[in-house]
Amino acid sequence: MEDMLEDTVLVNLRINGNLHELEIPAHRSLLDLLRDDLKLTGTHMGCMTGHCGACTVSIDGRVAKSCITLAATLGRAKITTIEGLMRDDGTLSTIQQAFWDNAGFQCAFCAPGMLLCTAELLATNSDPNDADIDTALAGNLCRCTGYQSIRRAVKAAIAKTKEA
Amino acid sequence: MSLHPSFARPRTLDQATEVISSLSSGAIIIAGGQELMPSINYGVLMPQVYIDIGQIDALKGITEVDGSIHIGALTVHRDIQDNKIIRSKVPLLACAAAKIGGGWQVHNRGTIGGNIVSMHPLYDILPSLIALSAEVEIIKDGQIRRVALSDIMVDATQGLGSDSLLVRVVLKSTSPGAGWAYEKLKITAGGYGSANAAAIITLDGKKIAGLRAVVGAVTELPLDVSDALSGCRGQVWSDRLSEEVEAKASAAVKVPLSDHQGDGDWRKAMAGVMARRAIEAAIRRVG
Question: Which of the four pLDDT bands, split at 50, 70 and 90, describes residue B2?
Fold first, then answer.
């Protein structure tokens, strides 16, 4: 069975639309891969235990905490980081603009989780109510706003999405 | 930490059991990683080999087989919450999975198998699975055997042991007339509760006919208090009976946990409160 053991692992990750073929050590977390190897530092390092949500990315359309995701297990996953949210022309997406307009963030350390969870909420629920919003954001801690401005921003993003 | 850990990606159950049995201590089995990665990040666990079981199809999927519900070990909490079979046949489990901490990010990656084998006292779904009389299928040396979940919940420090792999969970449908509830008391930061309880109740008229109740997060392993509360059968729910339930469920806790979630005496008291609330809520849901 020794032949089954690999010292490094080959992964083919499509990150924000770009294909990365990477030979990585077995113990690499997705967070370290993004921040240290690919310099995508919009994904933040917070607690390293899966509590805070600052390291959130989307893996195959579903949010995940990159600090507690082992990169070697991801194979050919499609990953979206906070850098991948903006439009192709470099302007803010509907969700980002709603957070900007409603002063959703103060320091914005929690932005990756708040924005990507909102994106998944809008992608999976055409008419979310207040409880749905709270459920979608439950995996993220914000220590600035008291969450009210974040809820306001998400509601604005929902309204804008319904208009479109 | 081993600075150069290695990695194995078995594709079949046979390959997985071969590689597991060929390795000595220092190898870990990883799926969603939500239990293991925090410990690895903080140096509590230092694996020499990671065995990634995420590619094994035999561990995936939710199906009905001969009236039973089979849930593959790799099934993530989010899929348990949303799955039509689980929501209609074993709704208690969908409810408990939704109460797991960490939000969607953890629900999207954490697996039912990992949740079970970690045997963590503060995790949310074990009390419900025991109340549902769940069985589990475990593979060891190429042989799959089916056992009651409660029979393997023996030693939280050893889990399943280093030579076994959990394949799937097997559940019977909850009777459509039964009431069920999962109550979680959460007073601290983070996703963990300080006490919880799962209950399944059937009534005969107004009298309690069947009662299953399991309290969690107060002892090393979930505590089945159904026998301690068997005196409820044949009785109508009342203030007096609810006080009796609270006292008896609390008294069943012999060695309470005493940790960041609260001290032992209080946890023992809260075990009773959670059992009472879960049974009350389950009775309200009957029919």
Answer: low
Q: Look up residue A123 and give its two tokens.
A: 């992608």
Q: Flag whether residue B102 sits within 8 Å of chain A, measured between CB atoms.
A: yes
What is each CA distance from A29 to A2, A36, A62, A73, B56, in whole angstroms?
24, 10, 17, 10, 21
Of A83, A102, A135, the position where a domain reaches its end is A83
- Tell me, yes or no, if B23 comes closer than 8 A to chain A by beta carbon: yes
Give B-chain residues touching A65 at CB under 8 angstroms. Answer: 102, 105-106, 109
The CATH number of the domain where A149 resides is what? Answer: 1.10.150.120
CATH topology of domain B59-172: 3.30.465
Per-residue pLDDT band for B72 (boundaries 50, 70, 90) equals very high
pTM: 0.96
Residue-wise pLDDT tens digits, A96-148: 999 999 999 999 999 999 999 999 999 999 999 999 999 999 999 999 999 99
Q: What is the C-alpha separation between B123 and B115, in angstroms, rounded? A: 7
How do strand B68-72 and strand B49-52 relate by DSSP bridges? unpaired
Distance CA A14, CA B100 (A): 30
Instruction: Indicate whether B168 pLDDT > 70.
Output: yes
- ipTM score above 0.85: yes
CA angle B40, B41, B42 (to 5 degrees): 90
Q: Report the relative pairing of strands B195-204 and B207-216 from DSSP bridges.
A: antiparallel
Domain boundary among A83, A102, A117: A83
C-beta separation of B181 from B282 below 8 A: yes
- pLDDT value of position B3: 67
Asked whether the beta carbons of residue B30 and residue A73 sit closer than 8 angstroms, the reply is yes
Please indicate whether, in this complex, the C-beta atoms of B18 and A1 are within 8 angstroms of each other.
yes
**Which residue range is the domain that position A145 belongs to?**
94-163
Assigned CATH topology for domain B179-285 = Enolase-like; domain 1 (3.30.390)
* Strand order from edge to edge, sheet including B135-140: B62-65, B68-72, B164-172, B135-140, B143-148
Is the confidence at residue B51, as pLDDT, over 90?
Answer: yes
Burial string for B89-116 (b: 16+ CB within 10 Å, else e) reads bbebbbbbbbbbbbbbbbbbbbbbbbbb
Pairing of strands A8-15, A18-25: antiparallel
Flag whether residue B8 sits within 8 Å of chain A, measured between CB atoms: yes
Q: Maximum distance among all alpha carbons in chain A? A: 58
pLDDT averaged over every residue in chain A: 96
The confidence score (pLDDT) of residue B1 equals 46
Give the residue among B251, B228, B239, B227 at the shortest CA–CA distance from B280. B239
Handedness of CA A72, A73, A75, A78 (dihedral sign): negative
